[in-house]
Every structure is written in C-alpha cells, then in structure tokens.
Amino acid sequence: MRAFSANGDRAPSHPPSGGPKGSWQYASAPSANGKTVPKTGLDPAMGAICLAVLRRDGFVSLDAKEKPGYVSTSAFTRPVGRLHVNADIKQGGRLQIELLNKDDQVIAKSKPMEGNQLRGRVEWLAPAGEALVGQTIRLKFTLTKGSLYSYWFAKSDTVSPKGDSNDE
Hints:
The protein is mainly beta. A hairpin with a 5-residue loop joins β7 and β8 (106-109). Helix content is 0%, strand content 47%. The protein folds into 2 domains: 17-55, no CATH class; 62-154, Hypothetical Protein Tm1070, Chain: A. Strands 4, 5, 6, 7, 8, 9 and 10 form a 7-stranded antiparallel beta sheet that branches. It has a 3-stranded antiparallel beta sheet with strand order 1-2-3, with no helix packed on it.
C-alpha cells in the first residue's frame, strides 16, 4: 500500500547514507489532498519526511523454508580473513557452511548459525582458518527456514559506522 499520491512523491534529497545496520534513504512527500495526514488537527497542506532503512546487501536473498536448501559457490582462492554472513534465520531454522577442497571433499564444517545475522562471524567446529589461505576452495551453504543475503571475508571484526567491515 502506498502512503503518498502518485503525483506527490518526491525523489530522495541526497544519496543514501550508511547507518549501523544498513543503508538509510531519506525522502520528502507532500500530503495528498489532506488524505495522508496521520493525525487530526494537523494542517492538510503539510508534507512528510520519510526514512527507509534498507538491510545491508538485503535486495536479493536465497531463501529456504522447512525443507533444507543448499547452494555452493564456484571455486575461488581462499583469501586472508574470517568468513562472515548476512542471513536472517527464522525460529527453528539454521545455517551451516562447509568448506570444500578442489575435489569437493568437505575439509571443514561451521557451527550452526541461528537468528538474524547482519554481520555474523562464522565459527568452525575445527580449525579451518589461515592454513587454507591461497588454496582453491568452495563454500557450501545449507539453510533451513531463512534467507541468505551475502557472505564475505574480512581481516577483523571491526565495523565502520556505515556497517561495512573496515578491511574488506
């Protein structure tokens, strides 16, 4: 449902800015013949300033319901840094990640992840870190009841005010 008239919408006044949990987009809109004024007693000619907060990397996701789904990456050279994910895992769901070698053999499994993980650091059941840097690997994500938005490697867990890792 739209809150503004088709001819009353206004373009954003400036490009999106970063917030701690995603992208912030401000816009302004006039009232639509007094029909969108939310409170009684306000001037029907008043407009509104609007804020949309968009989840980091939240435009596209891979989704799974009760039946587990999985997706594997193409082979790539393992970079330096820890693996992080942006995923929203619903109650009763989970995300688990496997590291596969060039022969598609599992060489490491993550601890299962649950909940809303905007910048979730992947923890491994056994050490799977720096010894694999420079080797050809693939990642296999297995998800139940959730959405996987993105993954990345970062050298540290520090996060800038924009929500981005400082050293990606």
